[in-house]
Design a protein that fits this description.
Layout (H helix, E strand, L loop, with lengths): L2 E13 L5 E8 H14 L2 E14 L3 H7 L3 H25 L16 H4 L10 H16 L7 H4 L3 H14 L5
Antiparallel strand pairs: 1-2, 1-3
């Protein structure tokens, strides 16, 4: 039997006590709750501009796919899109791994474990992980060939947020 789960997304506007306005789109429930909690601590007002709950459906068997998407061409396109995403992940990991040597000829993506093995769950939308990845990439860009320092590998969400807040303090304001 197919599985349906609900997710709610928000478009929000935050207004600080000094009148600074910021908007964020497609904020998930967990991130929204964290923003509301953080805003209450510093006197920021959060306004929901738009909120919508979406029903996300997944097939639980191959046979069920055409029941959920009866048009075979559309079902095939959805399959191919998902396959392409899995192949892109393997390709990107290969190219980002400095220790991975090039191979002769075309690298066969379809046979790779990242494409052939089942996924072990969903990657949660984790702002801290996204910030760490972005900061590591920035560090590597600014310091080619230098190993990523341990402090950056182990940085907490709060530490990363504090660094980003320093950038925001020095950012020019729009006229």
């Amino acid at each position: 039997m197919s599985e349906t789960r609900n997710i709610t997304l928000y478009n929000i506007k935050s207004t600080t006590s000094d009148g600074k306005v910021d908007t964020k789109n497609r904020v998930g429930e967990k991130q929204y709750q964290e923003l509301v909690e953080d805003a209450a601590k510093v006197g920021t007002q959060i306004e929901i501009l738009k909120a919508q709950t979406f029903a996300i459906t997944e097939a639980s068997s191959i046979d069920e796919i055409l029941q959920l998407v009866p048009n075979p061409e559309v079902a095939l396109a959805h399959f191919n899109y998902g396959l392409t995403l899995a192949e892109h992940k393997v390709k990107n990991d290969f190219m980002d791994d400095d220790d991975q040597p090039s191979v002769d000829g075309a690298f066969d993506l379809i046979s790779q474990p990242g494409v052939q093995e089942p996924k072990t769950g969903r990657a949660p939308a984790d702002p801290a992980s996204a910030m760490k990845r972005a900061m590591k990439k920035l560090f590597q860009t600014m310091n080619p060939g230098v190993p990523i320092p341990k402090y950056l590998e182990e940085a907490t969400f709060e530490e990363i947020n504090a660094v980003l807040a320093q950038f925001a303090k020095g950012a020019p304001t729009a006229a």
